[in-house]
Amino acid sequence: MADDKKKFSLGGIDGAAEEKGSFMKTVWQLVKFIVVSGLVTIIQLVLANVLPFVFDGLRTEIPGFLQGIFAPNTIFDASVFTGSINDWLETAKTFMNDTFTKVDTTALKAAKDTLGEGYKIMKTQVTTYVDINKYVNGFAIENGSIVSGVITWGYLLPFFLSNLIANIYGFYQNKKTTFKSDAPWYNFAIYIFLMIALILFSTWFQGWLYGVLSQVSFLAAFARTIGGLAAGFIQMVVLFPMEKFVLLKEKKADGEEAAEEAAE
Fold it and tell me: Residue 10's pLDDT is what?
């Protein structure tokens, strides 16, 4: 009975996979890694949707070396604006007075019917303007492009911190259960540097994807979540081989290291 319980425990499955050879052992490690990555993604998604409530009001601009990576025109799609943003603002004020301020649903429907297709276009423009105004300091838009402006930490920190915190958990969980590694502490420092580089890329990608999806009406509410899932997938593909073969090599069993030295 005790043997049956051991067989179906995590340690028992680890042993069974190892007995079947290195290929099955790697497959089982990949399965465990995917499970941990799922937990990492859940933590990341929760933080990515909660942290904006903390940081949205932060208007401090990101430093110069990040401004080239996180360019406003790359992250936000301003193609809905065909002319100058200043000219558009006057039209938008009238639009908002005629639609969003209406409490009477009959009056709101009448405003929509009057504006026709222009209502949908203007609604998209308003949503885009609100996001850009929230996350970009000193922006100017001309002919569908953001020609100036700097992204704020209020935009970047929720994506960055949600990635970093979730993946620190993932590192320790993979070290303990997936690879059973006794890697030295400095491997964690290497991991942090790797993660920062990876997070900068995935944060840019996540933010770019958020900007694209937020313009699609039926996907806008899920834009952050989809962006987080995509970023998590990219990180998983990169991190599994790095952790297995470089950062979190499995500790050798008793006598195994001596046997290898003798063989040499």
Answer: 62
